[in-house]
Specification:
With 181 residues, this protein is α+β, with helices and mostly antiparallel strands. It is built from four helices and seven strands; from the N terminus they run βααββββββαα.
């Protein structure tokens, strides 16, 4: 299975202005550092949750028809293509499948599955995933992570513990949004 992002999100879940406001940083000297931390925390959060935060479009290549989609929440399935015996991609009729959600995970149900060529990229699913509005608990989690990494970005901090305050509370903010692989 291979997944490729073909249209990136238009904006970040946490903007530079938002992060700087939370950090109480007024000057622009550390803008590049803060933006790098934002990017790292967003990627980390998406990996921990196994979710796409901002809306993006993906192409998923697999050797067979899958039922469970790897990125959530699912907004839509734009098309499903399969490789016929001659090796050409054919668009699957959209009336032969439907998208549904169960426990925050997107699934595809097929009424009929055509024969496909045996090939590692025999099926291509183009879909859109992400939140229309990223939930506030996820954003709060990200802001605290950004602040922690910004304040403790040196390799060693003498005489200070880098343990987050109320670590259990912060981690529990995102627990309901986590999708188990």
């Amino acid at each position: 299975m291979q997944i490729v992002q073909i249209i990136a999100p238009v904006e970040k879940s946490i903007s530079l202005v938002d992060a700087k406001g939370f950090l109480r940083v007024l000057e622009s000297d550390d803008d590049v550092v803060i933006q790098n931390i934002i990017d790292a925390v967003e990627e980390h959060t998406q990996n921990v949750l196994n979710r796409q935060l901002e809306i993006a479009t993906y192409e998923l290549y697999t050797d067979d028809f899958i039922f469970k989609l790897p990125k959530n929440p699912i907004v839509s399935v734009d098309k499903i293509e399969y490789m016929d015996e001659s090796g050409a991609y054919v668009v699957l009729d959209s009336t032969t499948y439907y998208l549904y959600e169960k426990n925050g995970i997107g699934f595809i149900s097929y009424s009929e599955i055509p024969l496909i060529k045996e090939y590692k990229k025999a099926v291509k699913i183009t879909f859109v995933a992400g939140y229309e509005t990223v939930p506030k608990p996820i954003k709060s989690y990200m802001r605290v992570k950004i602040a922690n990494y910004y304040e403790n970005r040196e390799e060693y901090v003498i005489g200070v513990s880098s343990t987050e305050v109320a670590n259990g509370f912060i981690d529990n903010l995102i627990k309901p949004y986590r999708v188990r692989p």
